[in-house]
Design goal:
By secondary structure, the protein is an alpha/beta fold. It has 2 domains: 171 residues, 3-Layer(aba) Sandwich (Rossmann fold), CATH 3.40.50.2000; 142 residues, no CATH class. The strands form 4 sheets. It has a 9-stranded mixed β-barrel. Strand 10 and strand 11 form a beta hairpin. Helix 7 crosses helix 8 and helix 12 packs antiparallel against helix 14. The radius of gyration is 26 Å and the shape is elongated.
């Protein structure tokens, strides 16, 4: 029982704390077993973080917007506590595996690592370890603030024996355990109940079907919720009463304050995805485009990728090995000319040149070109949609409807011949 022991509470035979705040009456029983002389100092005051999470639920859509997720996207939240038995300690490759398996335009992957992970290794090292994931679209929550908002934005959570995973289950979110060291957990605690109720994630099997299964039939996690706090919604009042008693001051007549979590405080680290595998197929007169990031590699056991796909890489991308495989190269107006790109890269079929206001110009190897306009606004700029034109073969159509994620967008092309 972390913190409820002689070593933590007693010095020279005297109980040191004036008040020991507990979240549940069950902890009072455990305190009585471990340090009976400390029971008079105990205050059962619930869990203020849990109460704030519940109060902040109405702002869920704003938190999702800050992660770049619309109402149809699936937000996958990865949570890791610290230590060798944590998710990041045992399976550091899991985040990249999720990014590699989940398509970019239906999913948003967000991760929160315990501050002890950040500051034991240093922020620069964390960013270095996760650099490929950040280039693949990961939203990485900084250590100081934002994990609560990201958790509330989530549709499914992958975690471990940390408190954040426990909150996910207590909120009723579909929750999978990537690791769960039984010996590190108090069996009678909320986290102990989490270990008994949450399904395990098998990293040797495809990850996406496991996420879908968890979302389709999530357990109730009622036992986790029941053990998180014995006074739900009342923590602010009980804590304020305890604090004013310790200060020997009269408590204010007004009610206690329980602030919600500020959406503006959710500022995850992320980068634009500038290398992706694209797959297109025609359906009902539309081109359906799906994308997966090229900076991460699917783990062993993942579904076999379709051979009918092509690679899109933006000029300036740090993975120079990808350029030789790229069917589409995206360049800036002040960068390499299309002729130079075609001369240097025999596999390249299209060069896409970014323009202002979300437009782009597409060039083919035979000299044809087209100015591409997004007739109906979509979630990303025209360069993404232009990659679907690979399916047009050697010709460029005058209009094409591209379905990307949950959005159908019309592209108008003004073609010229070289």
């Amino acid at each position: 029982m972390y913190g409820l022991s002689d070593q933590s509470l007693v010095r020279d035979g005297v109980v040191v704390p004036s008040a020991i705040v507990l979240s549940h009456v069950a902890e009072l029983d455990r305190l009585a077993e471990a340090v009976p002389e400390a029971v008079p100092a105990a205050v059962v005051a619930g869990d203020p973080c849990y109460d704030r999470l519940i109060a902040s639920l109405p702002a869920r859509s704003r938190y999702r917007e800050n992660l770049g997720a619309d109402e149809r996207a699936t937000v996958v939240f990865v949570s890791s506590t610290w230590g060798p038995n944590s998710l990041f300690g045992r399976s550091p490759e899991l985040i990249s595996g999720l990014l590699a398996e989940l398509d970019l335009d239906h999913h948003v992957v967000c991760a929160a690592l315990h501050p002890n992970v950040w500051y034991a290794h240093g922020p620069a090292q964390i960013r270095l370890w996760l650099a490929d994931c950040l280039r693949a679209g990961l939203r990485l929550v900084p250590p100081a603030a934002g994990w609560q908002q990201a958790l509330l934005a989530a549709d499914v959570v992958v975690g471990d024996h940390g408190a954040v995973t426990g909150y996910a289950a207590a909120l009723g979110l579909p929750t999978l355990l990537a690791t769960f060291p039984e010996d590190d957990v108090v069996a009678r605690s909320a986290i102990g109940a989490l270990g008994r109720s949450a399904p395990r994630l098998d990293p040797r099997r495809p990850l996406r079907p496991q996420l879908r299964s968890a979302m389709a039939s999530p357990p109730s996690h009622q036992s986790v919720r029941d053990l998180t706090t014995s006074v739900p919604g009342d923590s602010a009042r009980l804590l304020r009463t305890a604090f004013y008693r310790l200060m020997n001051l009269p408590e204010p007549d007004t009610g206690p304050v329980l602030p919600t979590y500020d959406a503006a405080a959710l500022t995850p680290l992320h980068a634009d995805v500038e290398a992706w595998w694209a797959h297109t197929h025609e359906s009902a007169g539309q081109l359906r485009l799906s994308r997966r990031p090229a900076d991460v590699t699917p783990p062993p056991g993942s579904p076999t990728e379709s051979l009918d796909r092509h690679l899109v890489v933006a000029a300036g991308h740090p993975r120079h090995d990808l350029y030789g495989l790229a069917a589409v190269v995206v360049v800036r107006q002040d960068g390499s000319t299309p002729a130079d790109v075609f001369a240097d890269r025999p596999a390249c079929r299209l060069v896409v040149q970014r323009r202002e206001h979300g437009r782009c110009q597409v060039f083919t190897r035979d000299g044809a070109s087209a100015d591409v306009r997004v007739a109906e606004p979509g979630p990303v700029d025209a360069t993404v949609y232009a990659s679907a034109l690979v399916a047009a073969g050697h010709g460029l159509p005058s209009r094409v409807v591209v379905v990307l994620g949950s959005h159908a967008t019309t592209l108008d092309l003004d073609a010229t011949s070289g």
